[in-house]
Design brief:
This protein has 246 residues and is an alpha/beta fold. The protein is built from ten helices and seven strands. Helix 3 runs parallel beside helix 5. It starts with 9 loop residues before the first helix and ends with a helix. Bound molecules: 4-amino-N-(piperidin-4-yl)-1,2,5-oxadiazole-3-carboxamide.
Length: 246
């Protein structure tokens, strides 16, 4: 991790799955602070932009030296990633691909960003967590680590859960319920209490498809449905239409 605010990472290091993964020695996060590589007495790492304009830019040298130090420490060929709104918007499929890397070097920018020469010459991939402007790359880096850690074998209780979750088949997860069976007037769908595994499986698929169609129709355009899935959806859409006509 290349960041001038390593303390921010306490929130993933000390809590939840990420903290457990560190304790289990299946995740390790190391820090290189550009300030430690500043050539200035006051440890400054930013400067005014050439050509004028508002805001400060992170200087090339401290980040360059931090990357070199990280690479020297890791010893193996390692991808350098810069988190920025200019990057490709990251999704679960990209995360799955990134999880194939044993090591990653993540650069967290601050201020108006980093000297472009870092990006063109020393960054392998630029990823964004969404179309909005944050004040630093630390939160995006933590988002990325949190997503990646779930895919490390042994990080979550059941490997199944990582793969059955929303998005892993391109559809939203089906609705979930837990005890009690009845709260006030609100009941849990009867099928889920029936113990009929085949019926339950069918219900989950149907629920998943309906939910995706209602809440995230954009996801359906990206995947190829089986004939059975298409028929479930057609039936649901017809029912939906009828109800709307009433
Ligand atoms: C994002 C983002 C971001 C951009 C960092 C302005 C400070 C800031 N990084 N996805 N400089 N969205 N970065 O907003 O990754």
């Amino acid at each position: 991790m290349i960041s001038i605010f390593p303390e921010m990472f306490a929130s993933i290091i000390n809590f939840g799955i990420t903290s457990q993964a560190i304790k289990k020695n299946i995740l390790k996060i190391n820090f290189w602070n550009p300030r430690d590589y500043s050539t200035k007495k006051n440890r400054s790492i930013d400067d005014y932009p050439y050509g004028g304009g508002v805001g400060m830019i992170m200087k090339i040298e401290p980040i360059y030296l931090a990357i070199q130090a990280a690479k020297l420490f890791i010893k193996k060929k390692t991808k350098v990633i810069y988190l920025s709104p200019q990057g490709k918007k990251i999704n679960q499929e990209n995360i799955l691909n990134l999880s194939l890397n044993e090591n990653l070097i993540l650069i967290c920018g601050r201020y108006k960003g980093i000297d472009e020469r870092i990006i063109t010459n020393y960054v392998d991939e630029e990823w964004s967590i969404g179309d909005y402007i944050l004040s630093g790359g630390e939160l995006p880096a933590m988002v990325l680590i949190d997503c990646l850690v779930r895919l490390i074998p042994g990080a979550i209780g059941k490997i199944q859960s990582a793969f059955e979750d929303s998005f892993n088949n391109g559809l939203l997860d089906h609705s979930q319920f837990t005890r009690p069976k009845k709260f006030l007037i609100h009941n849990v769908p009867k099928i889920l209490l029936s113990g009929n595994h085949l019926k339950i499986k069918q219900w989950k698929l149907k629920n998943s498809l309906e939910k995706t169609w209602k809440k995230r129709p954009d996801l359906l355009k990206k995947i190829k449905l089986t004939k059975k899935e298409r028929n479930i959806l057609i039936e649901y859409k017809n029912k939906h239409k009828k109800n709307n006509q009433k």
